[in-house]
Q: What sequence folds into this?
């Protein structure tokens, strides 16, 4: 496999770190950029451990100007993983308008800006892989997540529409919809909620970040070149 330049947003989180490590370990010629904004200790450590293959780039994913600056600094992007996101759960009746807007901006607008920032170059080189991290909430929307579920459902629809637009250019666009994954969100979940979540999962365990990362890497590989516009559910069997 030839070397590739990969940009992973949300590079300081547990899932972003696992995705980056998957590409770093795939080939020594791969170069991974970690898009980070606030709190980058984990991303900096990974970049230090893989100093010849990995580097951080300042990136506010909600700002199109920041995307333009970051992509210009990187120079070439073969694989874009839109992984950054955030949630502010609340019942719709009492949800502040600002909370709705922030979550839509962080999860949906950010994917639009990211795809738009790399597409010109991918179209010019007639190749590219875009993987958008959505959520199981996009397919099975829970109560208390109207903002997050709507944003992630939008990511799935954006993915499917864009996939059709660039299919003839050897550019694939896919989404992954993880269920409960052992990341910061699970670690801070109250014990009662963790128990209830586990009871919903037929496998009776949370997913590992490495399992999501493996699917991301597969969708980015040459052997997956006929897969585009899909929304892959990875959730331990929740229906």
A:
């Amino acid at each position: 496999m030839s070397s590739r330049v990969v940009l992973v947003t949300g590079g300081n989180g547990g899932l972003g770190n696992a995705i980056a490590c998957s590409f770093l370990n795939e080939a020594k010629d791969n170069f991974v950029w970690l898009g980070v904004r606030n709190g980058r200790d984990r991303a900096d450590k990974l970049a230090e451990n893989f100093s010849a293959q990995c580097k951080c780039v300042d990136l506010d994913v909600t700002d199109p100007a920041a995307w333009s600056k970051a992509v210009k600094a990187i120079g070439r992007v073969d694989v874009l993983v839109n992984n950054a996101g955030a949630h502010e759960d609340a019942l719709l009746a009492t949800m502040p308008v600002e909370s709705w807007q922030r979550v839509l901006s962080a999860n949906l607008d950010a994917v639009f800006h990211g795809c738009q920032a790399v597409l010109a170059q991918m179209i010019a080189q007639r190749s590219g892989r875009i993987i958008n991290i959505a959520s199981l909430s996009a397919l099975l929307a829970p109560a208390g997540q109207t903002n997050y579920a709507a944003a992630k459902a939008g990511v799935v629809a954006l993915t499917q529409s864009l996939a059709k637009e660039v299919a003839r250019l050897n550019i694939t666009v896919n989404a992954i919809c993880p269920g409960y994954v052992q990341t910061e969100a699970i670690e801070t979940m109250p014990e009662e909620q963790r128990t209830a979540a586990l009871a919903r999962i037929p496998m009776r365990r949370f997913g590992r970040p490495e399992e999501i990362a493996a699917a991301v890497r597969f969708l980015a590989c040459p052997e997956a070149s006929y897969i585009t516009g899909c929304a892959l559910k990875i959730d331990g069997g929740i229906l």
Notes: The CA atoms of residues 2 and 139 lie 35 Å apart.
